[in-house]
Description:
The protein has helices at about 1-20, 35-45, 50-65, 95-100, 160-170, 185-195, 200-215, and strands spanning about 80-85, 90-95, 105-110, 120-125, 130-140, 145-150, 155-160, 175. By secondary structure, the protein is α+β, with helices and mostly antiparallel strands. The protein has an 8-stranded mixed sheet. Strand 5 and strand 6 form a beta hairpin.
Amino acid sequence: MRKLKQLIILSVCLIFIAAGAVNQGVSGFLWSLPFVVAFIYVLRSFSVKSKIALMTFAATLIVPLAWKHEENKIIYPWIDSAFTATCAWEAIKYERGFTGYDYATLVPKGAEVEEQYVISRHVIPCDVDWKLTRVFVRHPNLGTLYYPVFSIAGYEATMSGYELDDAIKSQTLNHSQIHSSYELQSEWTNSLSLLMMWAAIPIQLLTGVMSFFAHTSA
Length: 218
């Protein structure tokens, strides 16, 4: 019975470690660390053979989830798939200090451009596929914003999730399965990563209790 309880604890720890491994939010793997510690602590009472087997199983599960997020097809299943675009696009290379990344930025023709930061401009040819090669994220205001990177006729460029949403809405960029930037990430890894919100539960409970007593005393 004791071993069964330990195996259940190890399983729960692995689930939360996996959630941290796929988490694209601002906390990343941080809130999985207590479960890593708990996993190692519980594992110490197992035999050497069992430890090796369980550690191998854990590594086999976690490493593919944590490996190279930007190009990980488990997290971003549409990598290597193609988008179709209208002709009215150009790639503008801004100074890195302005954008924070080295890729050119995809901009529809006629859109407002910060000319003082422009290094170069590149007209996107018509009738070519935009191949999704990777996705990176940023966290404005502690949120999660996806940046898809496209290879277009051998030229790599990106846009923010906001700009992708606008392009899809205006039908200047289309994909048969993606209708929002949040659909770039697989639904199940996104759902799993929500477990990393566990650290906020005590704060939410405390806020709720304080709010309750504030209303009752008013």
